[in-house]
Design brief:
Shape of chain A: globular
Oligomer: homodimer
Helix content of chain A: 40-55%
CATH class of one domain in chain A: Alpha Beta
CATH topology of one domain in chain A: Isopropylmalate Dehydrogenase
Order of helices and strands of chain A: EHEHHEHHEHEEHEHEEHHEEHHH
Number of strands of chain A: 11
CATH architecture of one domain in chain A: 3-Layer(aba) Sandwich
């Protein structure tokens, strides 16, 4: 029997809030009938939407607040005035134990800043990271950090590796996930000092992890490893480059299929097969970036996603809560409590 | 009347050398009938290949050497023993003025190290960069650095921006190329200090360049700017990510088109249109990375390219020589001789 979970939702975050949030929750409720929801935001706008879904209403509560954090707010502004906002209250629900996870499609910087302030990081973790699951030729991988930490030291990268590994094990269900550091070449001497130091530490630590060394930008998508670790600057550029190239291909193919009558007929015949490819790489399917390393489950949905995408982000929160992700992380860091020490020394680089 | 150009070729560099080099030169000769070639390498292997192409033979000379630099050689090894190698001699031909440019499909690190040693950088340029032309939804862009400089300061980034701008103007023929710094967001406060300092300098300099600030990884492929500037680590990851995603899409589409008889027929009908997309993003078409900032034209061909790809790399060398790229660069740096000074100070970052 699975425990009844409660997910807190920032009902006012995202381009089409609260509409997408409520409808996304309804879709998620159909998938996870034993999950309850708490909506934080403008009751006058949420209640009528919720009223349309009887089964969802039965497992939901609305917590009114008229304060919202806008997409343009800086993290510092959010910290000053955000505690009573829909985002702040939803995070607080995780802190006080009334919810097992929070999902917001609001401002990423504000969400990270407020979640760090309210929830704090897990013991042993210096900095949380943003992670997401991405498609590869083989299956999927988890990549982190995607932008929370623009500059990282070796210790941060080592911690990201361990968090990514636990995520792949507990949420993706991989028995022995492989890990790689994103670099400009595979050889030991490639890259800058920080990444080489992180590699040295990951090799030295007697962790039960499958560290495969460095992985290049192209090998990631061939499925070279299950966990791809990068500093937030590099990870963000890699993720957005991937999105940009995918969009470029889609644009080129669309115009190619419309370029002649014969090509159009070809498209109609191949449409079902092309639809499967589209589904496989659908960004909505991979919606729901995880803020890992916090003392609570926090999921960031893309601000412009639709109902299907928002439901998937809720699904990530549910999977993490059920997989006991944060307990596993804490165990891992307790077991390998010595990680920080050797990393802080300069590791010898050949 | 165009001046008769001579291109020096490292006949032994690349996976299928000297075969691809000689055949690639033959294809290039058909495109550029007034270009002459010098082949550096094992005469016993080059001569029989060259003998098959009468017109190419008429404009070619072979310079024998039995020394070659292998793909696994470190730059330091290449510097110690490489001067008499096919790569070293081909670069020297540019130095002593017997060729206007050199093309090699050999080891990138060795090529950069030896080219720096033999040719030196252009006046005012601290570090050369690797650049390439890439397809975008709108047309094309030039991206640099792609891996020559793993860590860069603001001055390096500013110099890359100016070199990229001159390349876009003289070789791509764009009258007023736009420039962007690859970053994790568009806002001024995004990214790390080095990139913000570079942006501040580029805004302050009274250069006649169209600096557009920061550009994100996805916007690059939408054609946001004509010149994309990054440190070598970030640029390399972005380029390889783009290659990897392109390959993943191709794999997915291929298997989709083979997934049913109807899809196969659809593919056959749409094949011509899909072929146009493939041609538009064909990596061979964009083969030929430029080592910019050196006192001579040096082009790196992909080691695994074919005859068509190698011919295109020669084409890049020809275009750069004809466009007077290095003279324009030198003029630009003389005109704006004050670049280095303000950049070396810490710029105020808001």
């Amino acid at each position: 029997m699975t425990k009844r979970l409660t997910i807190a939702l920032d009902a006012m975050g995202g381009d089409d809030a609260p509409d997408v949030v409520v409808k996304g929750a309804n879709m998620a409720r159909n998938r996870y009938p034993d999950v309850a929801f708490r909506f934080y935001g403008d009751e006058a706008r949420i209640a009528p939407l919720l009223g349309r879904f009887a089964k969802l209403s039965a497992v939901s509560r609305i917590h009114h607040t008229s304060v919202t954090i806008s997409g343009g707010d800086k993290p510092s502004q959010a910290l000053r005035s955000g505690r009573e906002s829909s985002m702040g209250l939803a995070i607080s629900a995780v802190k006080d134990g009334s919810a097992e996870g929070v999902v917001s499609a609001g401002n990423t910087g504000a969400l990270m800043a407020m979640a760090k302030l309210l929830l704090r990081t897990l013991p042993g973790i210096a900095r949380p990271a943003i992670a997401t699951v991405l498609p590869t030729v083989k299956s999927e991988c988890v990549m982190l950090d995607l932008g929370a930490n623009i500059q990282c030291d070796a210790r941060n990268l080592v911690e990201f590796a361990i968090m990514g590994e636990v995520f792949a094990r507990t949420v993706l269900g991989l028995p022995k996930p492989t890990i790689g550091l994103l670099n400009v070449g595979e050889e030991d001497m490639k890259g800058h000092e920080i990444i080489r130091e992180a590699a040295t530490t990951l090799r030295r630590l007697s962790l039960p992890i499958e560290f495969r060394g460095f992985v290049e930008g192209d090998a990631v998508w061939a499925g070279a490893v299950d966990v791809v670790v990068a500093d937030g600057f590099t990870g963000n550029v890699a993720l957005k480059t991937a999105e940009g190239i995918a969009r470029m291909y889609t644009t080129f193919l669309r115009s190619a299929f419309q370029s002649s009558i014969v090509a159009r007929i070809g498209y109609l015949l191949a449409r079902r097969a092309i639809g499967k490819v589209r589904a496989r790489v659908d960004p909505r399917r991979y919606n729901g970036a995880m803020l890992l390393g916090l003392n609570g489950i926090v999921i960031k949905s893309h601000g412009g996603t639709d109902v299907f995408g928002f439901a998937n982000a809720i699904g990530v929160a549910v999977d993490m809560a059920r997989g006991g992700f944060n307990d596993r992380i804490t165990e891992e860091f307790e077991r390998t409590g010595t990680i920080a020490a050797p990393v802080q020394q300069k590791a010898a680089v050949s």
